[in-house]
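(Structure overview)
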Amino acid sequence: MLINYDPDGKPIFTDDIIEEAEQLRLHPVLILCDEPRAQVGDPTGVSFIALVAFIPRQGDRIVLEDGRVCEVSKVYYKVLPRKDTHGKTQSILLVPNVTAYLLPDSPEQSSGNGRV
């Protein structure tokens, strides 16, 4: 699953996603775009995995497919072990996790559809 609207879930990095990123020479990034002042468990945000040439930085803006705009507030990195078919760790990836918030003047923000 590359896109997730469940506030308690998150997209899963699969070996296929990581292999595609390596073949394309891109970086896999987990992006969470949420409403400002949303509380944990609020069904307002969307998270997704993107393959990018450049890792977003604080202050960068991400335009979603529906025209809404999120501004990056924080970038942190998570260790993601890659295992071989026998369950043994074969490599460790450092995966960027990007937190962003919808801008107030973003189109369709008040519609509440939350779609990327």
Summary: The radius of gyration is 15 Å. Confidence is low (pLDDT under 50) at residues 109-116. Residues 3-111 form one domain. The longest strand covers residues 69-83.
